[in-house]
Amino acid sequence: MTNSGILLKCLRQLSSQNIIPHICVVGAGPAGFYATQQILKSINNVKVDIIEKLPVPYGLVRFGVAPDHPEVKNVINTFDKIAQDIRVQFLGNINVGRDITLYELKQYYHAVLLTYGASEDKKLMIPGENLKNVISANHFVGWYNGLPNHQNLNIDLNKTDAIILGQGNVAIDIARILLSPIDKLKKTDITSYSLECLSRSKVRRVWLVGRRGPLQASFSIAELRELLKLENCKTYWRSNDFKGIQDIVPNLARPRKRLTELMLKSIEESSFDNRICDKEFHPIFLRGPVEFLGFDSVENVKLSVNELEGDHFLKQIAKSIGEFEEISCGLAFKSIGYKSTQIDPSIPFDLESGRIINSSGKVEKGLYTAGWVATGPIGVILSTMANAFTAGKLLAKEVELMKQMPGYHELQKFLRKKGICIINYEGWKKIDNEECERGKKLGKPREKIVDISEMIEIASN
Amino acid sequence: MALVHKLRGIYKSVLLSSVSQSWSKDIQKVKPNLFVRNTSTSKPSYEKKEVNVTFIRANGEKLLAKGKEGDSLLDIIVNNELDIDGYGACEGTLTCSTCHLILTKEDYDRLPEKPTDEELDMLDLAFDLTDTSRLGCQIIMTKELDGLQVKIPSTIYDARS
């Protein structure tokens, strides 16, 4: 640090000796918790209020991570410790933008950190998108994971063929949920209503469609390997998709190289695989969605045949060659990515990319952002963690303590006046406890409560 | 048994004082040990031989730690309450890469257990991946590895701050 930097810091500390920084974090997902962790580490005497729209915390760790990946949810243990720190308060059931504006929050807190994630789908913008059984990946994941908004998803699984447009890890999760033996899902915290529906599913063939080629596949190797090993399920690649790939493999960086080698090995193995399996997995490349066809409900998906343009494989783009292919399917999922929303008109927001305009986590004086709402919906939890650490640290370093701020004291007065029932961490623990109790009776780790009013009732008891 | 507990207490307090030097670098005084996981994935056993490991931060700072044969490097970091941001998020279940460590070529080659496909899959998602990278949760200490030195990679977070 430079001398002037130290001087500034001393001055700041002298002038703000008795002022406790009040920080408001909007969104109780991984980004919110990891940023809070960094703020607590940087400032000893601080108050951090984590505001959440739902009565329950943990965001995508609860509502995004697949139920058959419980290990990934171990991060909750860290979040739980953060939430139980005496300097931290979890404040659930507060909808920023509806119950309280960002301007109002700024009147109560020294700094606000927006970590509310990316909850909307990107649209394909092709004809037929509104046909029945054309399902947004986001809604399907929310449905099986118990997201209150999506509990009543209108889906008909009485179809043999399902197509998934997109090849990210969400697409792979959906394929796995559709292709997994139901007995495997029974032991997870998947919602009972979706388990019941999946147990009657007729889906036996799942297509996973990518616009570009195998070298641009966006699933991670661990997710693919798991799917290839799935019990009673056989993988069918199109060897034509892999023309010329073998020659490029030696020049690839390790992660891409290993992923490509795994696919090539699987192609080779599948040519000797004489098993007859109940379920089939069909990853296909170089096909772009053009139209959903059907009368009332989707019956076919029309795909363009693509080729790649550009020199370097990382920058190659898909271009239709004017030929088309139709795949018959009674169920289609759009899994081409999430985008965020501008929850308050005063947030500088890039509607095109669906994220808050920021520089290394800073939006403007006193306003910061981290996680998917800041970076766009990319990367695994590690990238969100790294990003949230950076933003949390920056906020802690820069927070200006010119005057006392009322923090929670005024916030709760304001919200009570509006009739908003705040759910604190103790309230969440009651919900958590009830969910585990209900799960125990069903032989699963948890049965999620999906009704918001029921959550509030349990928390308030 | 009581003596062992006492000794354990002594070495812990010695270690903690060395670790606290690293904290003093932080902007303001911090609350120690708040977010360090306090469970270990292996059972403590007092009969096993004690081993030493040195963890070297990206800035060159050395963290000395003690463990036992059979402990993973993740166990040792947890049990010694070393302050490494975000380390071991999935708690040793091979579903993240936050316990990424970098070994010397020599150490990498002499480890008795080679990395599995599943470990390599996770490492492929790590920042600053090298040819001698391993996950700390998968390296099990033996008495032959006593004195091991490993590097903690500089994450994007460290690089930008």
TrEMBL record, chain A:
Pathway in which this enzyme or protein is active: Steroid metabolism; cholesterol metabolism
UniProt binding sites for FAD: 31, 52, 60, 96, 372, 379-381
Cofactor: FAD
Localization per Swiss-Prot or TrEMBL: Mitochondrion
Sites where the protein binds NADP(+): 167-170, 211-212, 223, 379
EC number of this enzyme: 1.18.1.6
Sample GO molecular function, one term: oxidoreductase activity
Key words, A-Z: Electron transport, FAD, Flavoprotein, Mitochondrion, NADP, Oxidoreductase, Transport
Alphabetical list of InterPro entries matching this protein: FAD/NAD-bd_sf, FAD/NAD-binding_dom, Ferredox_Rdtase, Ferredox_Rdtase_adrenod
Main subcellular location: mitochondrion
Catalytic reactions on record: 2 reduced [adrenodoxin] + NADP(+) + H(+) = 2 oxidized [adrenodoxin] + NADPH
Pfam families in UniProt: Pyr_redox_2
Chain ranges of the FAD/NAD(P)-binding domain: 22-178
Gene3D superfamilies xrefs: FAD/NAD(P)-binding domain (3.50.50.60), NAD(P)-binding Rossmann-like Domain (3.40.50.720)
GO CC annotation, single: mitochondrion
Family indicated by similarity: Belongs to the ferredoxin--NADP reductase type 1 family.
Protein name: NADPH:adrenodoxin oxidoreductase, mitochondrial
UniProtKB/TrEMBL annotation, chain B:
Keyword Transport part of the UniProt annotation: yes
Parts forming coiled coils: none
Similarity comment: family membership: Belongs to the adrenodoxin/putidaredoxin family.
Swiss-Prot/TrEMBL cofactor(s): [2Fe-2S] cluster
Residue span(s) of domain 2Fe-2S ferredoxin-type: 51-156
Record-given protein name: Adrenodoxin
UniProt xrefs under InterPro entries: 2Fe-2S_ferredoxin-like_sf, 2Fe-2S_ferredoxin-type, Adrenodoxin-like, Adrenodoxin_Fe-S_BS, Beta-grasp_dom_sf
Described function: Required for ecdysteroidogenesis in the prothoracic gland which is necessary for larval to pupal transition.
Xref: Pfam families: Fer2 (PF00111)
Single GO term (MF): metal ion binding
Cellular compartments annotated: Mitochondrion
Alphabetical UniProt keywords: 2Fe-2S, Electron transport, Iron, Iron-sulfur, Lipid metabolism, Metal-binding, Mitochondrion, Steroid metabolism, Steroidogenesis, Transport
GO cellular component: mitochondrion
Record keyword Transferase present: no
One of the GO biological process terms: steroid biosynthetic process
